[in-house]
Amino acid sequence: MNQNRRNDIIFLTKYLGKLVDKDFDYRLAKYDLTGQQGRILFYIDKKTNCEKQEVHQNDIEQEYHLSKSTVSGIVKRMEKKGVISIEKQHPYAVLKPTDAGEKIIESLHLQKDDAVNKLLDGLSENEKEQTCKLLNKLIENMEGGN
Length: 146
What we know:
Blueprint: H1 9-29, H2 35-50, H3 57-64, H4 68-80, E1 84-88, E2 93-97, H5 99-120, H6 125-144
Antiparallel strand pairs: 1-2
Helix pairs in contact: 1-5, 3-4
């Protein structure tokens, strides 16, 4: 990495995000899913199974700031792959993870520890704690901005 970029916080955070996304994409490729499909599958699972809420396409549009046509295409592909079901109910269709989708989520939750360990390898417990605090503060700063 270029020495000048080692001190460029914007570059570093963006680059780290890309590396984390690449790792997630690699783990999802085993299930023939994209990163976006994986995030949406986790979202549907969380809302359905943890929060006991129905999920509709417009919820995904709002959560991920995606257009109706983009979400429609993603949802159709995910249904075709057998990871979600679309239950037609008036006035909106309800999206739910299938058994196959839930098995993928379960497997990825188990792999999450591997990904976190890879990310934090070589850091002390104090450094891990400080990193979380600093990242949360940076996020807070940016969310509170313009």
